[in-house]
Amino acid sequence: MHNNENPFASEDITPAFNDEWVAKRRVADALKQLTEVLVTSSPDIEQMHSIAERLEATAASFRASPRLFGRSRWAASGEHGSFAQISHELNPLSGWSNPIAPPLNSWIDGDRAYGVCQCNWAYEGPPGSVHGGMIAAIFDQFLGMAQRMGGQPGMTGYLNVNYHNRTPLNTELKLEGMLTKVEGRKTILRGEMYANDVMTASCEGLFVQPKGGIDAL
């Protein structure tokens, strides 16, 4: 069952809040396709200049539309869904309407957090492998979501990532997270990443709730 107020309640991809996000997800997917084509193709130089001119015109047209800077402003308008729903669309790692997101789909089931994502050629580091910085970013987002199990949302204090094997591109990556302990305003979690049932990376993350709560910032 879908839960639009909590995108992390199940592994089902939460449906878009309204038709605006349906359209924005489509644009994001097109941009994602374009990005992968860009880094994997070598067309004629003049053709690329022609493509660039059309994209520049599209960007200029897009730029003239009403704009909201920051998810808080999107939520404050009251027209685009709750802050959680907007984050589910615009987050740079898990946003379905953000073209730079793989995206990561994550959820909590009992005392475990789970996630899946797939990184294409745009995220290549070592040959045929996901960039290590991208792996750290995925862990940051995943464990940041998993800290819901501790009941006190906070900001990243540290991430200790261990790289055990190469993480292949264009392969489903599975993540599992567990709560280690909650101590005062601190929440510590462990995460693991697998490709084809082989652990490629693991991580310990510390998240600290700001004094006065996350909304006090």
Walk me through the structure.
Keywords: Apoptosis, Cell membrane, Cell projection, Cytoplasm, Fatty acid metabolism, Hydrolase, Lipid metabolism, Membrane, Transit peptide. It catalyses: tetradecanoyl-CoA + H2O = tetradecanoate + CoA + H(+); hexadecanoyl-CoA + H2O = hexadecanoate + CoA + H(+); decanoyl-CoA + H2O = decanoate + CoA + H(+); dodecanoyl-CoA + H2O = dodecanoate + CoA + H(+). It comes from marine gamma proteobacterium HTCC2143. The chain has 217 residues and is of the alpha+beta class. It is built from five helices and six strands; from the N terminus they run ααααββαββββ. The chain has a six-stranded antiparallel sheet with strand order 1-2-4-5-6-3, covered by helices on one side. A hairpin with a 2-residue loop joins β5 and β6.
Name some characteristics of this structure.
217 residues, 5 helices, Thiol Ester Dehydrase, Chain A, alpha+beta, 2 domains
Set down the secondary structure blueprint.
Elements: H1 19-40, H2 45-63, H3 71-76, H4 83-90, E1 105-109, E2 112-117, H5 132-146, E3 155-163, E4 173-183, E5 186-195, E6 198-208
- Gross morphology is globular
CATH class of the largest domain: Alpha Beta
Strand content: 15-25%
CATH second-level architecture of the largest domain: Roll
Tally of contiguous helical segments:
5
Radius of gyration: 19 Å
How many discrete domains? 2
Structural class determined from secondary elements: alpha+beta
Looking at CATH, the homologous superfamily of the largest domain is Hotdog Thioesterase
- Write the element-wise H/E pattern from the N-terminal end onward: HHHHEEHEEEE
The average pLDDT is: 92
Total strands? 6
Strand order, sheet with most strands: 1-2-4-5-6-3
Helix content: 25-40%
The CATH topology assignment of the largest domain is Thiol Ester Dehydrase, Chain A
Enumerate the spans where pLDDT stays under 50 for 5 or more consecutive residues: none
Q: Major sheet, described briefly?
A: 6 strands, antiparallel
Catalytic activity: tetradecanoyl-CoA + H2O = tetradecanoate + CoA + H(+); hexadecanoyl-CoA + H2O = hexadecanoate + CoA + H(+); decanoyl-CoA + H2O = decanoate + CoA + H(+); dodecanoyl-CoA + H2O = dodecanoate + CoA + H(+)
Enzyme class: hydrolase
Protein name: Acyl-coenzyme A thioesterase THEM4
EC number: 3.1.2.2
